Amino acid sequence: MNGIIQNIFVFSSLTIAVVFLVRKFVWTPKKKTAKTCGINDCRCH
Amino acid sequence: MPKQINVALIGNPNTGKTSVFNALTGLNQKVGNYPGITVEKKEGVCKLPRGVKAHIIDLPGTYSLNASSLDESVVIELLLNKNDKDYPDVAVVITDVENLKRNLLIYTQIKDLEIPTILVINMSDRMAYKGISLDIEKLEAQLDTKIALISTRKKQGVDNLKDLISNYQNLSIEPCLSTQDIDIDYFKGLKKAFPNQSLYKLWLVITQDVNFGKISRNTIKDTSSFKTKKDSDLKRLQQKETIKRYQFINNVLKEGQTIDLKTAKDLRIKLDRILTHKVWGYLIFGIILLTIFQAIYDWSSVPMDFIDNAFASLSDWTKNTLPAGAFTNLLAEGIISGLGGIVIFIPQIAFLFLFIAVLEESGYMSRVVFLMDRIMRRFGLSGKSVVPLISGTACAIPAIMATRNIESWKERLITILVTPFTTCSARLPVYLIIISLVIPEGRFFGLSYQALTLMLLYLIGFGAAVGSAWILNKILKIKSRKFFVVEMPNYKLPLFKNVALTVLEKTKSFIFGAGKIILAISIVLWFLASYGPGTEFNNAEEIVTEQYASNNLSQIELEQKIASHKLEHSFIGIAGHAIEPAIRPLGYDWKIGIAIVSSFAAREVFVGTLATIYSVGSDQEATIKNRMAAEVNPILGGPLFNLASGISLLLFYAFAMQCMSTLAIVKRETNSWKWPILQLTIMTAIAYIVAFIAYQFLK
After folding, report:
1. Structure pTM?
2. Where among B170, B192, B208 does a domain terminate?
3. I need a surface site. Which of B82, B89, B521, B559 has the fewest CB within 10 A?
4. Could you give the CA distance from residue B335 to residue B323 in angstroms, rounded to a whole number?
5. Are B12 and B123 in contact (CB under 8 A)?
6. Is residue B255 part of a domain?
7. Interface test with A, best of B39, B63, B206, B209 (most A CBs within 10 A)
């Protein structure tokens, strides 16, 4: 019984860790980008 | 009056804006980014009289509302957008008592946006030194606002400022300059086309290409009843506007400010003469750097040993106390060991940030920028490139963002490309652990060999950055204008509160930013090291017992053999063996290979990974350093971490890019994948070649 519970915790932790890493480095939700920074071309457009 | 109001702190760089922010908010502050861009956003809460709360935003330092960088455009976009949740109910413009004339330009512009504006004259404690006296009543009358004369250093005037903020509704919103003074006909036409809009806001929309409400630059251009001007004509009008504003400011200061140069006592010139001297300046800078690295080693050794032992004991305690099983092993061998590998470096990182904060706060950093400009120019960089290169010792990401104030695109691009060579704090854990394993503890003229090695690595990083900048300057054919303007703030004794908050904030973001990634990677690595496919892994006990049946091994020795066999045939062991042929010429085994690959997420993961891999199956309470020192080279015998492999690893990390987030930020700042990919390829190739040569030469 203890073994099963411990394994459930292990696989849950693993799933959370993998999802976190994928969201962090592979798939990140797109955010709105800044529009402009003046009429001088500072190459941030 | 609303229960919570928005207050924007605005001002030129070096006016003590952050000190005012810290004085108002204390520890009730947080740092983030503006949505979608990498400009730092500092906000906090301040309690005002009568139970009102002020939500304070510390906006990026800007000289005027004529934006030439992304940082400055953040200020304008907020001030023009009434629908923004952070749109200020009141603007607080921070000025420095010694630079009132220049600092007042932005005040007049913000006042013209019809936002209630309070003027803060900071650093009032320096008035006597400089022979400055102010007639606040006259200034208030001329500038049509309320003034708070404060000294954050002496903690004077902050309560008065809070009172003024809470009474912001009584402030006048009359503009300082009439737009008619710029060009009567042009603004008459504009007024006719947009009768219900603020003319100054429309003017900013036209000249800065920002939007407010539904009005954009194109909307104005497309309006048939109004004809806008060419860019060159608009520039001329902008210049006229600035001249008019300075005329207004001159008149104000003639009435309200007197400067008696006879009573001024100034050490600044004398100090500048020494600190920016062509010989003494560099010598002093070198001595300061040497002191910093020595201090990082000497001061942090005690807390580091304590943390290392505490984590080893915690891991042991967890294993002995919790019920035996997979999750207990994950906690003891994966999570605690992995986190221990990063927490141990808090003291050293805090000391590094402490020194950087003190140098910046004291005004010395600007002298370094000026001093280094002479050298930097020869390598195609600007004096301003020194700030990113020094900030790079903390983290390459803010350092690359700090290149935005470099005016020339070519110099900026080169700085972006070479900054990742500088030794960031994420490299520090790797360096420290390897140095402690392979460099002896002796001293040379009172300086430890280990501290000297660390300083040498920093110099290698800096040298690589400057050297590659020189090459890039020759190769890149980009035409751009070059000029160098730097403001030299006055020397100040650093404020303890500012330094402490900076150290706290930077260390926190390092630990929590990297900590989450390390925690997740530790879990994944532990899983990959504790599970494996096939009979070799699943029947490890039978295979090893049978293999060593005639060797009379003790129970502990046999268990270690089984753990080692399992690790070698686990998922991570199989992956490690697959990459081993590529890294063996550098003196690394498959375990180091795995640590290098996983540290591409963040360099400091290297130590956490090794801590996790070496912990798996280990029943002994041991520190990370002891575990690494005990590793044996599987082919040559002897310690795996010896001088040859250690130096090879140090040099590999000195040159390798090894940071996903830096790649992402380079892509964002250059607006192209071309530069980050080129950067990654070249840096990895250099790292591999240098590490290969070092190992083959020293082995």
Report:
1. 0.63
2. B170
3. B82
4. 17
5. no
6. no
7. B209
